[in-house]
Amino acid sequence: MFRFVQCTNPECGLRFPLDPEVHHGAFCPRCGAHLDQNAEIQGDLDCPSLEMRPVRQLSGLLDNIRSVYNVGAIFRTADGVGLKHLFLCGLTPTPADNTAVSKTALGAELALPWSQHLNSLTLAVRLREEGYSLIGLECTSKAIPIYRFRGEPPDDRPMVLIVGNERAGVDPGLLDQCEVVFALPMMGEKESLNVAVAFGVAAYWLAYN
């Protein structure tokens, strides 16, 4: 159970959650002053059960994601969104071969089915033959702003959201297999979001629209 404590030094005043498994002292980790012992105990953080559920079956395909932390973060997001499966392709690290994935996923990798595939293009062709609708997330000249997707007309086919390498992007061969390619609008100087963040935004939008 976390306690939220505050440094008694008026020039510091650091307020932070005290993890009893990490911080056993009574002193501020920033300035060394005493901590206010009138700590506020962490309340009930259980999210209430929400009535809304995903309106379509959605899975994810991660093609050559290089960062174990991005993969772990995507696992957590995919579990939260209610995805059915994660296809880990190419050089994408898996929970089986890199423990850092599991550390970031915090158990989501145990709840969400996943599989490893060395060749994403071969997998994409098979998924299309099995009736999946493949959706790419990439900034290209033909990409459609994702906010235009409203799920109309309704499509009962399962969908697979595809994201690619942090630097190289989605394999052009994969994009050719996609029925549509979506892009997230970027208003700042950067041309793209972190792949795990982008995946989360797109997954929630596609699953609930």
Structure description:
- This protein has 209 residues and is of the alpha/beta class.
- The protein folds into two domains: 1-46; 58-208, SPOUT methyltransferase, trefoil knot domain (Alpha/beta knot).
- 26% of the residues lie in helices and 19% in strands.
- The protein has six helices and ten strands.
- It has helices at 68-81, 99-105, 108-111, 120-129, 172-177, 195-208, and strands at residues 3-6, 15-18, 40-41, 58-63, 86-89, 114-117, 133-137, 144-145, 159-163, 180-183.
- The chain has a seven-stranded parallel beta sheet with strand order 6-5-4-9-7-10-8, sandwiched between helices. A three-stranded antiparallel beta sheet has the order 2-1-3, with no helix packed on it.
- β1 (3-6) and β2 form a beta hairpin.
- The two termini are 37 Å apart.
